Amino acid sequence: MTLLLPPSTAGSLPKPSWLAQPETLWSPWKLHGEELTQGKRDALRLALDDQRQAGIEIVSDGEQTRQHFVTTFIEHLDGVDFAQRETVRIRDRYEASVPTVVGRVSRPRSVFVEDAKFLRQQTTQPIKWALPGPMTMVDTLFDAHYKSREKLAWAFAEILNQEARELEAAGVDIIQFDEPAFNVFFDEVNDWGVAALEKAAEGLRCETAVHICYGYGIKANTEWKKTLGSQWRQYEEAFPKLQTSSLDIISLECHNSRVPMDLIELIRGKKVMVGAIDVASSVIETPEEVAETLRKALQFVDADKLYPCTNCGMAPLSREVATGKLRALGAGAAIVRRELTA
Ligand SMILES: [Zn+2]
């Protein structure tokens, strides 16, 4: 990255109201067939323009072509029956009706590669593409075939690696794996979670990132956070293993969270996407608030390795709020960039 402190987002942005119901997760599409295909691309271009105007340097598709960051990927795989549903506890936090793994999982064709090629055509800026991580995928399904979370994770890791290689060939600069489950299942993270993640990223020449967070601002997450006490030290469990892993970038939550900033010390040497925007609140940060979070992070990460970012995706927020937050992020990063280069 040539720009110091290049801002980016964790991934998702709100969709336009003509494409899907605003401020709703898993919102059904309002368009169908060819109109939907066209509408998703138009929305992608708008999301890109919002980022460009806000001074976001590493841009994404805003996840405009997917309903959900995990489910949409799984929908494209064989071996998962979406009609056969079971209720499971997701991230040990809330019950959800999920599809069932009924046979060997495989990826008959690429999932996001055409979308990534389209994004690549629209911009010369660095682009980042988000995929779910293997453990988070496992945690969003009922498994009636492998009967082992680890075995299923390895199967997903192979599939993710196929997709990631094609995304890289399409011109993606950073491939990010979303692993919120890393903040919950610490024994599994250290037993096989990080290893499966490395398998998903194996052989890639582009940069690779892992995003670990405390989730969207939905009720189940805010209730969970109330139980975590005055210091959120969950990152402490996964960071030592990630520090020695092959992943290049760690994306984490900072602003308005109770994560002690000095935990970043545990991943010294890695690039760090520092969450300076709270996605669980509709209050728009000021650029100075963003700058203050970044200054604190600079105590624990070298400036050339600090990437200002959002705490998580912004899909459930209103477009007005999300756009305001994007602009605050871009402006806050610019303040600190000026201080560093003065
Ligand atoms: Zn997140």
Which labels suit this protein?
342 residues; alpha/beta; 6-stranded parallel β-sheet; 3-stranded mixed β-sheet; 10 helices; 37% helix; binds zinc ion
Short summary:
37% of the residues lie in helices and 17% in strands.
Question: Care to describe what's here?
Answer:
- This protein is α/β, with parallel strands linked by helices.
- 37% of the residues lie in helices and 17% in strands.
- The protein has ten helices and nine strands.
- It has helices at 33-53, 71-75, 113-122, 134-138, 149-169, 186-200, 219-226, 235-243, 287-297, 319-341; strands spanning 78-90, 94-106, 128-132, 142-143, 174-178, 207-211, 249-253, 271-275, 306-309.
- It has a six-stranded parallel beta sheet with strand order 3-5-6-7-8-9. It has a three-stranded mixed beta sheet with strand order 1-2-4.
- Helix 6 packs parallel to helix 8.
- The protein is globular.
- The model has no long low-confidence stretch (mean pLDDT 96).
- Bound molecules: zinc ion.
- Zinc ion binds at residues 10, 180, 211, 213, 215, 312-313.
